[in-house]
Design goal:
The complex is a heterodimer of chains A (about 200) and B (about 600). In chain A, a hairpin with an 8-residue loop joins β1 and β2. Chain A has a 5-stranded antiparallel sheet with strand order 3-2-1-5-4. With about 200 residues, chain A is of the alpha+beta class. Classes of the chains: A alpha+beta (about 200), B mainly beta (about 600). Chains A and B meet through β3, α2 and α3 of A and loops of B.
């Protein structure tokens, strides 16, 4: 795969992540047999079993975030990244090109890191900024991890990166790889030559 | 050493008893374990079949799981049920329908499932009300009574049957004969009718007159004939004169011919229904002579025969379902009432007097062989109907048979003079029948039918789709609609009523439209209002409307009757009734301007947006 194709793919994958949920939550409890409650966070906000989760949350004083302004800059950031990666496909084998490609990878990793930090902040907020007059007093403050389970009362809540985040991770991998990828793959002649040299060495 | 004879006798008896104790008891325990395994469904696992048992004088349908015999629910049909909020209130449309068609009780006998290609498709279940001449239809997606009709020109709607193989009509037999012109001064013999009801519209399309009491019904598997046992061809009006003749009949009605005659306007129209008289139309009805006062009539799954059970005669009459000729009349035992079938050419007939189920081979009986009786098993006691799974369809499963016994006597812990009814589950998968288990029910299942869980499970819905007139969250209101009338639009969700308080004046006619805005299964809420004869049960997504007159001045706490959440006990609210002459001005209220100026807990916001 040439570097050009690699960056075009990375740009396309990055942009397509916008159409898919970034983060997911799966909630299970004994009285929901075989019917895990699901929430997804995507560009358009929170979707899934919103009605049911909102019905349940007031018992333990959890406030469902009604505003997620960070989704706006995440959207812009992803679009910007897709643009940067697209440009990277047409960079030359020069020092400037290498620096640009390195910067792309760095920005990507920084964006992923910042997003993860924001998600973790929100998760902390959900588990800590609770209504002190909640009917059920037995629940202590909690912090769902970025990835993994947390026990909240009778519920086990799993948080996990959803398809969108997985695509972004994959695209960031491509962007990192792109900093080292050759401009084009060896020709047939080159490959044969290479093979002969290897034989000789053996 | 010489032993005393008495010592020898005592030792022998003791040894024998000991052996019986050890071996006898061991054997019976192992037989019990084997039987238990056949009907044991562990907690969390599901039964193989749904069983629908008529509720008899409970006016309902009982739903049980087979083989476990676990009671899954009662479907109220002809009688109000507070627990399901069914037809409770005078203004409930279902209560009004009951009152308009014959009253708030019924006597249900024969549950009949809709058929497609001769097998049950799980769409509808029909059930009769013998007492008030009614037919009801239950939708099996929601397990609820859907339609109830009064059958004109008929009293005592007894036997019913679905016309095979595709549910063209529901046949309803009129058991209690009536003066033909409806005038009790008319000395002429009474007659009755068989009614043919269109399954979707529930309209009675035509009726066929029969001189006698029309009892149990079935149809040929090709849909050509309906078969009804008819007793009292004598047309007597007391028991003595009903049992004079040596033979009564199975009446075979040619359905396509009846349909054609009715279509040509050949019937005498009474109460909007054309009545066809077989005396005027050759071939419309064939009376097949069978021993007097027969009872059950059942078509074999392969469609070849129809079998009439003798009741007072120890025989069953095997009739060719195409030629209508009697091909055999074998003896089976005392008091044969009903017959059902397995998938291997065997028939099972209930013997009321013998308290037995007799298994017999149809082909051998038709050929006149002497060894047609295969097996007998005792049941407890006085069996009426019996039904093998699928025995009333074209695809019997040949595994379980339910014996519906009329008396239970010593079978359960004594509970006063009114004893439970006894249903027994019998294994018919082998050559010999095996008693597996029994379960009691309230009074009084007559007949049963079964459908495979795999067919029905996928059809059943557990949440209602809100109707257009449902009360939406944020649209709740309390509005005075006249000087003495108030309309309340309410929603409920864990764990609050919105509005949670409303005010009316004594004697106001209050119309409440209530919507349960839950969206998950099994989150049913109730609305019970003390001292107003009112309980409404609302499954998720359901909307119900009730009207009542506000009682004496005071605070009435309405509360949730269906346990729902950790705040179930707190899920209540008040109807404040002002005295009639109160000078307090009651203002209208709309959601968003709460009565007490606080946010009602539990009302969901919209989903988060960026």
């Amino acid at each position: 795969m040439t570097r050009k194709a690699l960056y075009l793919a990375a740009a396309a994958i990055t942009a397509s992540a916008l159409a898919l949920p970034f983060w997911g939550f799966a909630m299970s409890a004994p009285q929901y047999p075989g019917e895990t409650l699901q929430l997804q966070v995507g560009r358009e906000g929170i979707t899934g079993d919103v009605h049911e989760v909102e019905t349940l949350q007031h018992y333990i004083g959890v406030r469902f975030p009604t505003e997620l302004p960070e989704l706006r800059w995440v959207t812009r950031g992803i679009l910007g990244l897709a643009g940067l990666l697209l440009l990277a496909a047409f960079t030359a084998e020069s020092r400037l090109g290498r620096v640009y490609r390195g910067a792309c990878a760095l920005v990507f990793v920084l964006l992923l890191g910042a997003s993860a930090a924001v998600v973790q902040g929100r998760l902390y907020q959900v588990g800590h900024e609770r209504n002190p007059n909640a009917p059920i007093r037995a629940i202590r403050d909690f912090t769902p991890p970025l990835v993994g389970p947390v026990k909240v009362g009778n519920f086990t809540v799993w948080s996990f990166p959803h398809v969108g985040a997985a695509l972004l991770l994959a695209a960031s991998g491509l962007a990192l790889f792109g900093t080292r990828a050759p401009a084009r793959r060896p020709t047939g002649h080159g490959r044969r030559l290479h093979a002969r040299q290897n034989e000789a060495a053996a | 050493m010489k032993r005393h004879p008495l010592v020898v006798v005592v030792l022998t008896v003791a040894a024998t008893l000991g052996a019986v104790q050890i071996f006898g008891c061991g054997a019976s325990r192992s037989a019990k374990s084997l039987a238990a395994e056949k009907v044991y469904v562990p907690p969390g696992e599901l039964d193989k079949y749904y069983g629908f048992l008529s509720g008899g004088q409970s006016g309902s349908v009982f739903v049980v799981g087979i083989p476990s015999g676990r009671l899954l629910r009662e479907i109220p049909v002809f009688e109000p049920r507070a627990a399901y909020g069914y037809a409770m209130n005078d203004t409930d449309p279902r209560r009004q329908l009951l009152d308009a068609t014959g009253g708030a009780w019924g006597d249900t006998h024969h549950p009949m499932l809709s058929e497609k290609n001769g097998v049950f498709d799980g769409r509808y279940l029909w059930i009769n009300d013998l007492a008030n001449g009614r037919l009801a239809r239950i939708r099996l997606d929601y397990f609820e009574t859907d339609r109830i009709i009064k059958i004109p020109n008929l009293q005592g709607a007894h036997g019913i049957a679905v016309v095979s193989p595709d549910t063209r009509y529901i046949v309803v037999n009129g058991e209690f004969e009536q003066p033909t012109d409806g005038l009790v001064t008319n000395p002429a013999p009474y007659t009755s009718v068989v009614a043919f009801v269109e399954p979707e519209s529930m309209v009675v399309k035509f009726e066929v007159r029969v001189n006698g009491n029309i009892d149990i019904a079935d149809t040929s598997k090709d849909g050509r004939y309906s078969f009804s046992t008819v007793y009292n061809l004598e047309q007597g009006k007391d028991m003595g004169s009903m049992i004079q003749y040596d033979r009564d009949a199975v009446a075979a009605i040619d359905i396509p011919l009846a349909e054609k005659l009715a279509g040509e306007g050949r019937g005498e129209v009474r109460n909007g229904v054309p009545i066809l008289d077989p005396a005027q139309h050759a071939g419309l009805m064939t009376l097949i002579p069978v021993p007097k006062n027969p009872h059950g009539v059942n078509a074999t799954p392969d469609g070849r025969y129809v079998i009439a059970s003798g009741k007072l005669s120890p025989t069953v009459t095997i009739i060719d379902a195409k030629t209508l000729a009697i091909v055999a009349e074998p003896e089976v035992g005392l008091g044969p009432l009903h017959t059902t079938f397995d998938d291997r050419g065997n028939a099972f007939t209930s013997l009321f007097l013998d308290s037995q189920v007799v298994k017999w081979n149809i082909d051998r009986a038709v050929k006149g062989a002497s060894d047609y009786i295969v097996d007998r098993i005792n049941v407890h006691y006085n069996i009426g109907h019996l039904q093998a799974v699928g025995g009333d369809s074209m695809r019997p499963s040949g595994d379980y048979l339910l014996a519906l016994n009329k008396l239970s006597k010593d079978q359960y812990l004594p509970v006063g003079p009114d004893l439970p009814e006894n249903q027994e589950i019998i294994d018919i998968s082998g050559e010999q029948m095996k008693m597996l288990a029994s379960f009691p029910t309230p009074p009084e299942p007559h007949d049963a039918t079964f459908i495979s869980a795999s067919v029905l499970q996928s059809i059943v819905k557990q949440v209602y789709t809100p109707t257009d007139d449902a009360v939406a969250v944020g649209k709740e209101s309390v509005v005075r609609t006249g000087p003495h009338s108030v309309a309340v639009n309410m929603t409920l969700i864990r764990s609050a009523y919105t509005p949670d308080t409303f005010e009316v004046k004594e004697g106001d006619i209050v119309t409440m439209k209530i919507t349960n805005v839950e969206t998950i299964r099994d989150m049913i809420h109730g609305f019970a209002l003390p001292d107003h004869n009112l309980n409404v049960a609302l499954p998720p997504g359901d909307t119900k409307t009730v009207t009542f007159a506000a009682g004496k001045p005071g605070a009435y706490w309405f509360y949730c009757t269906n346990f729902c959440s950790a705040l179930h006990l707190e899920m209540r609210g008040r109807m404040l009734v002002q005295p009639k002459d109160s000078t307090v001005t009651l203002t209208d209220w709309h959601a968003g301007e709460n009565v007490k100026g606080q946010v009602v807990p539990g009302v969901p916001s919209t989903g988060a947006r960026p």
